[in-house]
Amino acid sequence: MTTSKELSIALTGNPNCGKSSLFNVLTGAHQKVGNFPGVTIEKYEGYLDYRGYRIKVVDLPGTYSLTPYSPEEIVTRKYLIEHRPDVVVNVIEGPNIERSLLLTTQLMEMEVDFLVALNMMDEVEERGMKINTRQLQKLLGCHIVPTSAKKRTGLESLLDHVIRVGTGDITIQKNKLFFRSGLEEPINEISELLAAERELAAYNSRWLAIKLLESDREVYREIQRQPAWVKAEVVMQAALKDARRLYGSDPEELISEDRHSFIRGAMKECVELPKEKRTSLTDYIDMVVLNRVLGLPVFLFVVWAVFHFTFTLGAPVMEWLSSLFSMLAVAGGRYLPDGMVRSILLDGVLAGVGGVLVFLPNIVLLFIGLSFLEASGYMARAAFVIDRVMHRFGLHGKSFIPMITGFGCSIPAIMATRTLKSRTDRLATIMIIPFMSCGAKLPVYVLLCGAFFAPSMAANILFGIYLLGIAVGLWTAWILKSTVLSSDSEPFVMELPPYRWPTLGSVVFQAKVKALMYVKKAGTLILAAVVIIWVASNYPRSAVIEADLQRSRAAVEADAGLGAAEKEDRLSALEQSAQSEQLAHSLAGRAGMLMEPVIRPLGFDWRIGIALVTGLAAKEVVVSTMATIYSLSSDTDTGDLQATLRSDPAFNRATALSLMVFVLLYLPCVAALGVMKKEVGRWKPVLLYSAYSLAVAWVLSFIAYRGALLFL
Amino acid sequence: MRLSELQVGDKAEVTGLNVDAAIRRRIMDMGLIKGTRFKVLRVAPLGDPMEIFFKGLYLTMRKSEADGIMVERSGGVGDGMPMHTGARRRYGFGGGR
């Protein structure tokens, strides 16, 4: 069988209409995910071979309509116009056919070659609904194929019809949808004017005319540049006036009403709803889940469950991964010759790769959890329950789950903001996530709280630090949303989809997509940054320190008056102090020392400065760097380091408090910055954010330090 | 009357949309146009977004958005009983007095 003949099809449909399941069933393993240009909407493409045709399938984002207000709708419309797929498959959610037909009417207006896949037929039958598809076909002027992605029925018939439409065997009957008098005439008139315009040949002129009367800004912009606009405008103005005079309303509303009355007519003629209305499962579940008293506890429980699923289940895998990498390092050490190359490869690059991959378990688990919530229908309800609180800070209800995930790790949390549709809502949410104290910062708090505060006090301080993070985050959101990001918040007009049991395939697919995206897109950036920080904290190496170490080592070895155990101790002490000196000598060390005048007012000396610089690789590194600087071997337990810190005159309770605040708020780790850049798309917001977080960290640490000096 | 002023359980019909263009578009696309009858299902636990039901669709919106949707109340909890005062009362069932 040859596959020389190609067909391209695009799937359109409402959100939650089973479009993605259909896409998965059709294309199976032949899928790839990209982005639509300029937006962070994922573009799913795949192909299948059927009866000698290679059918390329694009799954367009779910939309209710084709107006230019939401990014999904703009993307869908643009794709249909610019890429002109051979066949558009309009997936309709059978049980909710009335609502789904709005998009169909707009495809009819565009006069694209389309057919309807009447999906979820199994559910339609179960409910006792009857749909007269023959009659509906006549009304819509296109073919309708009943399908069920879940039960895998009707798929062959769908593909057969796709081929017939694609090859011109079936033609779409046009002009099935008319508007009321007072609208129809100007539409025809404008349409004729525009049809003469050669530059607009790519568009359907009737569609353009309808869009003009709907005052669609994108079409408006396009038409305004054409000579025909002069005449068209006159007609349009007259139509606007007429509409007001005749119907007391503007054409946009009238057109919308006419579409809906067309749909209502079609429903009356073709669809028979079951006689008795029984309370659906969704109603019963919502009575509990959205209950005024139980709603909030249920919500908190779900968030807690997702959080634990992600981070508790992820922890052993993470540990297993990092031990795998240290095993690799040990194994590699045997085969590579000693020297700089080995050190860079094993301690730098391999550790860097490990640093990238270590986040994978969390990303995969979080997205399994989130896509389960999304596909089951709870995600929209979660936003409904918590929106009041989030809206007060200018955020959307959907910002909550990414924000909470930030307490585990910023990286999956930042990636999770994709559920937010509006660009400004997303940006604001991304910017507050790093203030949520992530798991890697905890070791720093444990070290400092343990060293300087009584256990009873330590818990309160820890709690206070977490609260401070939330407060700074929400404050930041509020500032952002009331200044630079004030425009175009997503209106909270949201459907609560009926509850459905998600298919395993689509949940796993989502997690796979996110994992690959992280590794491919952010992985290289993070790897580079981790390696750079590693090099900076190890190079340049001072030959003088090295020579000193050799000399004193030889002296100890030669000292006959020492026992074997004592020798061992002396040697490791020497080794550690040399390491500490090397760190001070390295680029990171010098940066730390250069920073000293700046961080002096916060109570930090150059040693803390170095720890803060290396902490950019990952926040928990702050602890191990401090151990190195204080000449402790890297495998000392925290108790020793705590004792050392306590005995250091430069360190006191105020410094500890100030350092905790600073670690909480200053720049997130490079991995988070890398993901941030990938999600935002540009460097500028990320750099501005970095400057902002440093400033906030400095000011609040200063207040904490001075306050603590006064009161403690 | 505004949609935001309705109580849980009330039934009403949309009479006009006085909201921003983008929100109006969204509301109309959802099928909430002049003449649509709906029921107020519930208010979120914290009192803000509200949920209404019409044509098989569960739609939520913030009260600030519901503020711009003009409605005429046509019934309340219970059912079928017209709860209007004034002229329409004459057509009510059973409400003898």
TrEMBL record, chain A:
One of its GO terms (molecular function) is GTP binding. The keyword Transcription does not apply. Gene3D superfamilies: 1.10.287.1770, P-loop containing nucleotide triphosphate hydrolases. Residues 6-168 form the FeoB-type G domain. It is found in: Cell inner membrane. Belongs to the TRAFAC class TrmE-Era-EngA-EngB-Septin-like GTPase superfamily. FeoB GTPase (TC 9.A.8) family. Probable transporter of a GTP-driven Fe(2+) uptake system. This is Ferrous iron transport protein B. The lineage of its organism: Bacteria, Pseudomonadati, Chlorobiota, Chlorobiia, Chlorobiales.
From TrEMBL, chain B:
The keyword Cytoplasm does not apply. It comes from the Bacteria. Pfam families: FeoA (PF04023). Keywords: Iron. Residues 1-73 form the Ferrous iron transporter FeoA-like domain. GO terms for molecular function: transition metal ion binding. SMART domains: FeoA. Gene3D superfamilies: 2.30.30.90. This is Iron transporter FeoA. The lineage of its organism: Bacteria, Pseudomonadati, Chlorobiota, Chlorobiia, Chlorobiales.
